[in-house]
Specification:
With 348 residues, the chain is an alpha/beta fold. Helix content is 28%, strand content 29%. The chain has ten helices and 18 strands. The protein is globular, with a radius of gyration of 25 Å. The N and C termini lie far apart (77 Å).
């Protein structure tokens, strides 16, 4: 069953199984035509027919879609003589409902800039503690969580902290912050555990990792954007006109040490980032780095990786540069003369 359909687009598979003109909407920043998709492969803009940005069955399953999701999606629509158009968000929303109860929880902290929190009353040596792999599904068992005197936090969390503030370290307890210092790597903060305080209602909840290289796993978190920047492809448009120049976003991070024991295709949740599927294990020098792909959850924009905003600025700058290069020669000369006159006026 799967072997037969894995080369097909999602539209072809769904139509074959349901027997009606049901399909996923062909106007959501992508195309479903194999002939058009071939252009992306031939031009090197896609890695192949299993590219996670592709609407092929191989592509969406590599991005974390489950077979059960496709089955439920088809059964929800049912056979019909009418054409039924569905958005991709519907498919990914069903997928989230299926993977949420079975995805174990882990933490990941971006390592380009981060916070080191030194706990004055933290453990003198690393202490391992068994915690639930999933807060609501005890059937997933336990996993080991390491506690150390110094821990890592997200810089996006730390930059809003204030001295004297009380925060909650998830799966550990409350902590009072006493000193905050700027460092080259981000922030260094001193704090004290107040585990007897169990009031978590008004505190910021933050995930954390042990600050010990032997207890960390290097990972790359990848999020893919749409191949096209237009919802629909107009008749007079070419792919070059509406192509997204940057569609892959990477965040290098540290993760819980035990994720290195997971197999390819494993689906987990990095808490407060989203769901991810293990796509590759890369060898970089003498170490191995795991590449995890963000799984869409049916929302308009995945919130998992904040570096998206930097890419958006870069894309906007490239777009302006491209539009400027398309202007007629005479118009460019006029703009150059105006800039020259403005510069002379400044000097005067």
């Amino acid at each position: 069953f799967f072997f037969f359909f894995k080369q097909k687009t999602a539209y072809e598979m769904l139509r074959s199984l349901v027997g009606s003109e049901m399909c996923i909407r062909d106007s959501m920043y992508t195309v479903l035509s194999k002939r058009k998709l071939q252009w992306f492969v031939d031009s090197g803009r896609a890695s192949g027919w299993d590219d996670p940005r592709f609407p092929t069955v191989r592509g969406i399953m590599r991005r974390g879609l489950r077979v059960e999701t496709l089955v439920e999606f088809m059964l929800e629509q049912g056979p019909s003589v009418n054409t039924v158009l569905m958005d991709w968000d519907k498919l990914w929303s069903i997928n989230r409902k299926i993977i949420d109860p079975i995805a174990p929880r882990y933490s990941a902290i971006a390592n380009k800039a981060y916070v080191v929190l030194n706990l004055t009353n933290g453990p003198g040596a690393p202490v391992g503690e068994q915690v639930d792999a999933h807060p609501k599904n005890v059937d997933l068992g336990k996993r080991l969580q390491w506690k150390t005197k110094s821990i890592l936090l997200e810089l996006d969390d730390g930059k809003d902290f204030k001295e004297g503030e009380k925060i909650t370290l998830m799966r550990w307890g409350n902590c009072r912050l006493s000193q905050i210092q700027q460092k080259d790597f981000g922030l260094e903060i001193t704090g004290e555990l107040i585990l007897e305080d169990t009031d978590y209602k008004s505190t910021k909840k933050v995930n954390w990792l042990p600050f010990d290289q032997d207890l960390l796993t290097e990972v790359i978190l990848v999020e893919y954007d749409h191949l096209l920047n237009a919802r629909e492809v107009e008749e007079n448009q070419t792919f070059d006109d509406i192509l997204n120049e940057v569609t892959r976003f990477e965040t290098r991070a540290w993760a819980d040490p035990h994720v290195k024991n997971l197999e390819l295709g494993a689906i987990i949740q990095f808490e407060r980032r989203g769901f991810f599927v293990l796509d590759k294990v890369l060898t970089q020098g003498t170490k191995q780095v795991m590449e995890w792909v963000f799984i869409p959850d049916g929302k308009t924009m995945g919130p998992s990786i904040p570096v998206r905003m930097n890419y958006e600025k870069e894309k906007e700058a490239k777009k302006e540069k491209k539009e400027k290069s398309k202007k007629p020669k005479k118009e460019k000369e006029q703009e150059g003369q105006q800039e020259g006159q403005q510069e002379e006026a400044k000097q005067e």
